[in-house]
Amino acid sequence: MKNRMRLVLSALTGGVMLLSAPVMAVDIPIKITGTIYIPPCKIKNNTDFKVSFDKIALQKVDGQNYAKSTTVEVNCEYFQGKPYIRLSGGTGQLSGAPDNVLNTTGANPSALGIALYQGGTVDPQNPLRLGAGAQGQYGYEITKGLSAVNVQNSQFTFTAVPYKHGNTELNAGTFSASVTMSLSYL
């Protein structure tokens, strides 16, 4: 019985000593990362859309005739600040033309472009310019064509018009152009 008591006391003493011994820990750094971004607005519920000119007389292409206005629905999760629009990719800018003129493919690739304007008219004061703009990746400030600013749901109207570059005679034939449009608030 005495041996048993000694054994229990020894075990208890050893356990207490173990519990009172200093604990060693290793410091491990934790790195937490993420990205806060400005979500782009949804244009026409993120579906493709077309602007069709149908048939146009080649002698009447002057950057005014055959203008087509298009209005698209815009839905924004974030709508604080100023609205910006970016046009990128696709067929790109027509070489030597203003920065609101898309290049075309087809019968007249270096002479025929599509000029784009903010709003419902051909208005040289409000071009719908291609590229990243002064804000880097967000494009250029919208100055005309947005039905309401700083609201979740609105509409954006733009105008596209065939544009003849230089004195080159146009050839009869089909043409097309494409571009990616994104709208964000900053």
Question: What does this protein structure show overall?
Answer:
This protein has a domain of 116 residues: Immunoglobulin-like, CATH 2.60.40. It contains one helix and ten strands; from the N terminus they run H-E-E-E-E-E-E-E-E-E-E. The chain has a five-stranded antiparallel sheet with strand order 1-2-8-6-4, with no helix packed on it. The radius of gyration is 32 Å and the shape is elongated. 24% of the residues are buried.
Largest sheet: 5 strands, antiparallel
Mean pLDDT: 89
- Approximately what portion of the residues adopt beta-strand conformation? 25-35%
Oligomer: single chain
User: What is the CATH C-level name of the domain at 61-167 and 177-185?
Assistant: Mainly Beta
CATH architecture of the domain at 61-167 and 177-185: Sandwich
The stretches of 5 or more residues where confidence is low (pLDDT under 50) are none
Q: Which radius of gyration do the C-alpha atoms yield?
A: 32 Å
| Topology pattern, helix = H, strand = E | HEEEEEEEEEE
The total beta strand count reads 10
Within CATH, the superfamily of the domain at 61-167 and 177-185 carries the name Fimbrial-type adhesion domain
Instruction: Categorize the overall geometry.
Output: elongated
Structural class assignment: mainly beta
N-end to C-end Cα span:
84 Å
Instruction: Tell me roughly what share of residues is in helical segments.
Output: 10-25%
Count of separate DSSP helical elements? 1
For this structure, the CATH topology of the domain at 61-167 and 177-185 is Immunoglobulin-like
* Strand line-up across the major sheet: 1-2-8-6-4
Keywords: Signal
Organism: Salmonella typhimurium (strain SL1344)
Pfam families: Fimbrial
Domain Fimbrial-type adhesion: 30-185
